[in-house]
């Protein structure tokens, strides 16, 4: 068992912590008080369990005004699924998962939110520049983020193949350099329908490192959520490598993810 998954399995071993994850799966972004009320649990006990889940990266927290909101982080669970479950039960579980996802999409009443947290050895200003400098984003993202980064301005996610095509064109909603950047992040369907999702970057420095939180809200579908759950960690891993080593990863991480998925599909087909 990989060492990096040990905290995940230990956190999941407790039924109370699994219950907390269930509550966040039902409604993401709850405060400590809301979780306590739903579980009839003392605040101190709930806080201790949430600390274990956060240490295992199963829960991420974001301050919204004076409220501390808790979000389920699906990435470690996805790693467990990839390492331990899909290897043995892929065909049957894929069929069951398709049925479950279809039911969840039909029952969904509010758009999902995705939250990802990473820690980078850099200054807040360096992280801000990496998010907003067109040349730097081209290096670690494969697209240029072009804008004057003023509130109300347009920003574009432009391909680096020389075509000048913008795969995303959104609006800058809030700018607090170097702490907070909020912008719409519409896909093609959202641009047509006028219902863009929204991304918030929060940069929190602590001594020699920075905690970078990405909060992607109002995601249209579960399929989009699955794509973002793979995309954001890949992009931010490349950003982290660039700032800490001066170079991006030797292989684009989103290409590695695609290759692993293709290999998994090939193994499944050959059975």
Automatic annotation (TrEMBL):
Pfam families membership: AHSA1, HTH_20
Residue intervals of the HTH arsR-type domain: 1-92
GO MF, any single term: DNA-binding transcription factor activity
PROSITE patterns: HTH_ARSR_2
InterPro entries for this protein: ArsR-like_HTH, ASHA1/2-like_C, HTH_ArsR_DNA-bd_dom, START-like_dom_sf, WH-like_DNA-bd_sf, WH_DNA-bd_sf
Organism domain of life: Bacteria
PANTHER family tied to this protein: TRANSCRIPTIONAL REGULATORY PROTEIN
Family per record: Belongs to the AHA1 family.
Name of this protein: Uncharacterized conserved protein YndB, AHSA1/START domain
Organism: Blastococcus haudaquaticus
């Amino acid at each position: 068992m990989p060492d990096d998954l040990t905290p995940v399995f230990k956190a999941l071993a407790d039924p109370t912590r699994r219950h907390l994850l269930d509550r966040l799966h039902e409604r993401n972004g709850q405060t400590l008080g809301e979780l306590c009320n739903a579980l009839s649990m003392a605040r101190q006990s709930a806080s201790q369990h949430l600390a274990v889940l956060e240490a295992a990266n199963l829960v991420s927290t974001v301050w919204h005004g004076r409220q501390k909101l808790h979000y389920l982080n699906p990435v470690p669970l996805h790693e467990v699924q990839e390492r331990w479950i899909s290897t043995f039960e892929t065909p049957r579980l894929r069929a069951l998962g398709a049925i479950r996802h279809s039911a969840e999409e039909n029952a969904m009443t509010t758009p999902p939110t995705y939250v990802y947290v990473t820690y980078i050895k850099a200054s807040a200003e360096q992280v801000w520049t990496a998010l907003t400098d067109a040349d730097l984003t081209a290096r670690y993202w494969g697209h240029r983020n072009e804008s004057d980064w003023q509130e109300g301005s347009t920003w574009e996610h432009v391909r680096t193949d020389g075509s000048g095509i913008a795969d995303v064109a959104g609006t800058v909603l809030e700018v607090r350099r170097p702490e907070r950047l909020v912008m719409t992040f519409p896909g093609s369907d959202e641009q047509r329908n006028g219902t863009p999702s929204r991304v918030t970057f929060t940069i929190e420095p602590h001594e020699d490192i920075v905690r970078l939180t990405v909060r992607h809200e109002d995601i249209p579908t579960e399929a989009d959520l699955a794509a973002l759950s793979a995309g954001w960690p890949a992009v931010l891993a490349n950003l982290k490598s660039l700032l800490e080593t001066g170079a991006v990863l030797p292989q684009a991480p989103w290409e590695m993810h695609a290759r692993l998925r293709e290999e998994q599909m090939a193994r499944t087909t050959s059975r």
